[in-house]
Design goal:
- It contains eight helices and three strands, in the order αααααααβββα.
- With about 170 residues, it is of the alpha+beta class.
- The chain has a three-stranded antiparallel beta sheet.
- β2 and β3 form a beta hairpin.
- The protein is flat.
- About 20% of the residues are buried.
Length: about 170
């Protein structure tokens, strides 16, 4: 599945770099997306499993979908998987435009932008507050010694993402 998706994306977006294609591929073959595809295919209607156990049905559906792809491969080879994925799965169950529009990792995008422009970048924690066991962090992006976007959140990671998004907006990348 990884190989078929990678080849599809490479042919669909020939001018994009490896990092971008890898990011899109990882979204398509993620547990969440595969589970959604399995769910949309109503794959659980043909599965037999112990309904009394506390298992995520989405995980079972995603695993079953991957097993189905494996069965197609064993039965018909790589080209059969390729045709099935491109002509059936992508057309009926994968909204590529939605995946492309979904929020991506703003911090990674910002690092890529800064590397392309040969600008040093860092993140500075401006404040950390704990109110009734709920943390709030405020983070500032520093590019080439200048302050850019700020973001806040309940974790440093969330605050860095928010600061990165604001910075990308400020530099005209979003």
């Amino acid at each position: 599945l990884d190989s078929v998706i990678a080849e599809f994306l490479f042919s669909r977006f020939p001018n994009e770099d490896e990092g971008y294609l890898t990011k899109i591929k990882s979204k398509i073959v993620s547990r969440r997306t595969l589970g959604l595809i399995g769910h949309e295919m109503d794959i659980c209607s043909i599965l037999r499993y112990n309904k009394g156990r506390s298992i995520k049905l989405e995980t079972i559906e995603g695993n079953a979908f991957e097993a189905l792809i494996g069965a197609i491969y064993l039965d018909g080879g790589y080209s059969s998987v390729q045709k099935s994925v491109q002509n059936h799965v992508f057309r009926m169950y994968v909204d590529l435009n939605q995946i492309l529009e979904e929020e991506i990792d703003f911090k990674s995008r910002l690092f890529i932008w800064s590397q392309k422009n040969h600008l040093p970048i860092s993140f500075e924690v401006i404040s950390e507050e704990n109110n009734a066991s709920i943390w709030n962090y405020v983070v500032q992006v520093i590019i080439n010694g200048q302050e850019f976007g700020r973001g806040s959140g309940t974790s440093k990671k969330i605050a860095e993402q928010a600061a990165s998004k604001e910075t990308l907006e400020l530099v005209g990348e979003i």
